């Protein structure tokens, strides 16, 4: 059984789906590192961070999206993102790293331990979904490119390709392109911070940010930058798309915080997509740091989270 060779498996739960998926994995020759194998499947060894909550349906996860490169309506990405070419895919890693380069995503994936984590992810409008992501910790990639000692932040950029992204080609400019995001280096190195390459054990659908997107489960959904082509280590706080667009509404940190209202709406409760009753379903109370306070609150000790929103 290939899986036995996976590292620290004893701490992880392996579900029947994991076994099914992993049969299609090829095991690399050393250290239990796995390579994504033939076919459109992703390894799925369940992470200790997985939630017990019921996942949102694949249909809802893939048909109610924000991806402004493909239009502003929630249904636009599912309609328009299919034309995006996601293979081959290069990621430029530059700035304050010992090993800068233009890395092929397939090469990055070779030698990564592939994780499955089920995260609760939220968005700015006060709706939430539970998404069974596949991917690997951002820290695994950053460690390999060797951040220099002065690096304090990580900046991310999305692809600019108006020929395949109609939202970038239109006369009416929705956002400054490329979409950009950033994290403090300690946030980026936290084991909860994931680079997702799939969901529900399959490759990431284009509308969800194929082939590589960020998932920071204790922050609002817009931090989850999609279709990443550049990751830069820097000593300056990176600019972020929504802060550029509306600085009074969106700050750099964007930690889920039910105690701080968005200027135009309360952030105390959320609507879980898929709950019966649709728009009229009972709203759920939102938890500080989206329920991950035990793991991440320490990153912000001594900071006024009203000021650093
Ligand atoms: N990334 C890019 N490149 N472009 C975008 O418009 N939208 C963000 C974020 N990442 C966005 C993006 C917003 S506002 C949200 S809420 C999430 O993606 C939505 O992710 P989902 O569609 O997978 O739920």
UniProtKB/TrEMBL annotation:
<comment type="subunit">
    <text>Heterodimer of a catalytic subunit (MsrP) and a heme-binding subunit (MsrQ).</text>
</comment>
<dbReference type="InterPro" id="IPR000572">
    <property type="entry name" value="OxRdtase_Mopterin-bd_dom"/>
</dbReference>
<feature type="domain" description="Oxidoreductase molybdopterin-binding">
    <location>
        <begin position="86"/>
        <end position="242"/>
    </location>
</feature>
<comment type="similarity">
    <text>Belongs to the MsrP family.</text>
</comment>
<keyword id="KW-0560">Oxidoreductase</keyword>
<dbReference type="GO" id="GO:0030091">
    <property type="term" value="P:protein repair"/>
</dbReference>
<comment type="function">
    <text>Part of the MsrPQ system that repairs oxidized periplasmic proteins containing methionine sulfoxide residues (Met-O), using respiratory chain electrons. Thus protects these proteins from oxidative-stress damage caused by reactive species of oxygen and chlorine generated by the host defense mechanisms. MsrPQ is essential for the maintenance of envelope integrity under bleach stress, rescuing a wide series of structurally unrelated periplasmic proteins from methionine oxidation.</text>
</comment>
<keyword id="KW-0732">Signal</keyword>
<dbReference type="GO" id="GO:0046872">
    <property type="term" value="F:metal ion binding"/>
</dbReference>
<feature type="binding site">
    <location>
        <position position="123"/>
    </location>
    <ligand>
        <name>Mo-molybdopterin</name>
    </ligand>
</feature>
<keyword id="KW-0479">Metal-binding</keyword>
<protein>
    <recommendedName>
        <fullName>Protein-methionine-sulfoxide reductase catalytic subunit MsrP</fullName>
        <ecNumber>1.8.5.-</ecNumber>
    </recommendedName>
</protein>
<feature type="binding site">
    <location>
        <position position="208"/>
    </location>
    <ligand>
        <name>Mo-molybdopterin</name>
    </ligand>
</feature>
<feature type="binding site">
    <location>
        <position position="65"/>
    </location>
    <ligand>
        <name>Mo-molybdopterin</name>
    </ligand>
</feature>
<feature type="binding site">
    <location>
        <begin position="68"/>
        <end position="69"/>
    </location>
    <ligand>
        <name>Mo-molybdopterin</name>
    </ligand>
</feature>
<dbReference type="GO" id="GO:0016672">
    <property type="term" value="F:oxidoreductase activity, acting on a sulfur group of donors, quinone or similar compound as acceptor"/>
</dbReference>
<feature type="binding site">
    <location>
        <begin position="224"/>
        <end position="226"/>
    </location>
    <ligand>
        <name>Mo-molybdopterin</name>
    </ligand>
</feature>
<feature type="binding site">
    <location>
        <position position="158"/>
    </location>
    <ligand>
        <name>Mo-molybdopterin</name>
    </ligand>
</feature>
<dbReference type="GO" id="GO:0043546">
    <property type="term" value="F:molybdopterin cofactor binding"/>
</dbReference>
<keyword id="KW-0500">Molybdenum</keyword>
<dbReference type="Pfam" id="PF00174">
    <property type="entry name" value="Oxidored_molyb"/>
</dbReference>
<feature type="binding site">
    <location>
        <position position="213"/>
    </location>
    <ligand>
        <name>Mo-molybdopterin</name>
    </ligand>
</feature>
<dbReference type="InterPro" id="IPR022867">
    <property type="entry name" value="MsrP"/>
</dbReference>
<dbReference type="InterPro" id="IPR036374">
    <property type="entry name" value="OxRdtase_Mopterin-bd_sf"/>
</dbReference>
């Amino acid at each position: 059984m290939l899986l036995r060779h996976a590292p620290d498996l004893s701490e992880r739960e392996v579900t029947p789906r994991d076994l099914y998926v992993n049969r299609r994995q090829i095991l690399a020759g050393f250290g239990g590192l796995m390579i994504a194998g033939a076919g459109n499947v992703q390894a799925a060894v369940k992470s200790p961070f997985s939630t017990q909550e019921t996942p949102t349906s694949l249909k809802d996860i893939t048909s109610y999206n924000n991806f402004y490169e493909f239009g502003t309506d929630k249904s636009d990405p599912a309609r328009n993102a299919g034309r995006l070419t996601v293979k081959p895919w290069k990621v430029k890693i530059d700035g304050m790293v010992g090993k800068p380069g233009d890395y092929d995503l397939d090469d990055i994936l070779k030698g990564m331990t592939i994780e499955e984590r089920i995260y609760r992810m939220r968005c700015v409008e006060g709706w939430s979904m539970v998404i069974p992501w596949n991917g690997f910790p951002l820290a695994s990639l950053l460690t390999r490119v060797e951040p220099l000692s002065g690096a304090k932040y990580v900046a991310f950029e999305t692809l600019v390709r108006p020929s395949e992204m109609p939202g970038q080609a239109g006369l009416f400019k929705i956002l400054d392109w490329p979409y950009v995001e950033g994290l403090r280096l300690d946030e980026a190195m936290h084991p909860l911070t994931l680079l997702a390459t799939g969901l529900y054990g399959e490759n990431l659908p284009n509308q969800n940010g194929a082939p590589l997107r960020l998932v920071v489960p204790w922050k609002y959904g817009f931090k989850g930058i999609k279709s990443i082509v550049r990751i830069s280590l820097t000593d300056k706080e990176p600019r972020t798309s929504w802060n550029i667009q509306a600085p009074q509404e969106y700050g750099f940190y964007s930690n889920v915080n039910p105690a701080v209202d968005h200027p135009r709406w309360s952030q105390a409760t959320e609507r879980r997509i898929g709950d019966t009753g649709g728009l009229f379903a009972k709203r759920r109370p939102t938890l500080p740091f989206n329920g991950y306070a035990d793991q991440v609150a320490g990153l912000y000790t001594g900071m006024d989270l009203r000021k650093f929103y």
